[in-house]
TrEMBL record:
Organism of derivation: Bacillus sonorensis L12
Protein known as: ABC transporter ATP-binding protein YtlC
InterPro entries: AAA+_ATPase (IPR003593), ABC_transporter-like_ATP-bd (IPR003439), ABC_transporter-like_CS (IPR017871), ABC_transporter_ATP-bind (IPR050166), P-loop_NTPase (IPR027417)
MF terms in GO: ATP binding; ATP hydrolysis activity
ABC transporter domain location: 4-235
Origin: domain of life: Bacteria
Lineage of origin: Bacteria, Bacillati, Bacillota, Bacilli, Bacillales
Entry-linked Pfam families: ABC_tran
Length: 260
């Protein structure tokens, strides 16, 4: 049985005047340690589906299972990284990193040491007593990743976590997150508008159509690229071939849906 199972998810938003179908009959599976990306036009329901997997939104129909459990089960830990780091500005980096352990009542001397060791592993040294405003955007995202990983999440959900960063910082963080997830064998789902990012980081890419959102096509990243860091993968001819294939498919999808 697959680690992540998304089964026939349909979701409709209701207002006083109308209803809007956001997703329709979405089904896919992901194995433990697999990295899957959602790619597609704006408004195709990628973030809505990520929120459903996280248990933030209940779908109109269908269900999600993570390691045979529903997202709302108390013993299931879901890590969620967003475009903004959402570090508490009045708390030190140490306090921010430990907050998840405190909330879940898992803060022990051992778990504290492991959490703070993550900072060094993510390239953050002697920042424990600093406040978020004293760090760069890339450093804050690293601290956010440390906070997310500190509670040892069963799955990591990423909603465009690098889109607000400059390009060099973004590339460095892609490599960092990729290597960290491989080291800890974490299953991950990424929402992105960046084709290159999806190819460089993923094992599989789900291309969504919209109105309502459906899985239009699935692309499997070549094995030769999967073993490389995102930066190195971008240099390979196979990367460029897959990039052009997905770009043409996405461009056709957007033009067709704009006309219709």
């Amino acid at each position: 049985m697959s680690f992540l199972q998304v089964q026939d998810i349909t979701h409709t938003y209701f207002s006083l005047k109308e209803k809007t179908a956001a997703l329709e009959n979405i089904s896919f599976e992901a194995e433990k340690g697999e990295f899957v990306s959602f790619l597609g036009p704006s408004g195709c329901g990628k973030t809505t589906l990520l929120s459903i997997i996280a248990g933030i939104i209940s779908p109109t129909a269908g269900r999600v299972l993570i390691d045979s459990r529903t997202p709302d089960e108390k013993d299931l830990h879901i890590g969620y990284m967003l475009q903004q780091d959402y570090l508490f500005p009045w708390k030190t980096i140490e306090e921010n990193v430990l907050i998840g352990l405190q909330i879940s009542k898992k803060l022990t001397p051992e778990s504290k040491k492991s959490a703070l060791d993550l900072l060094a592993k993510l390239g953050l040294y002697q920042v424990e007593t600093k406040y978020p405003k004293e760090l760069s955007g890339g450093m804050r995202q690293r601290a956010s990743l440390a906070r997310t990983l500190a509670v040892d999440p069963d799955i990591l959900l990423l909603d465009e976590p690098f889109s607000a960063l400059d390009y060099q910082t973004k590339l460095n963080l892609e490599d960092l997150v990729f290597n960290t997830l491989k080291t800890y064998q974490k299953t991950a789902v990424l929402v992105t508008h960046d084709i290159g990012e999806a190819i460089a980081m993923s094992d599989r890419i789900l291309l969504f159509s919209k109105q309502p959102g459906t899985i239009h096509k699935t692309f499997t990243v070549p094995e030769s690229l999967k073993g490389m860091t995102p930066f190195d993968a971008r240099q390979e001819p196979e990367f460029q071939v897959l990039f052009q294939t997905i770009w043409k498919e996405l461009n056709h999808l957007e033009q067709h849906q704009t006309k219709s």
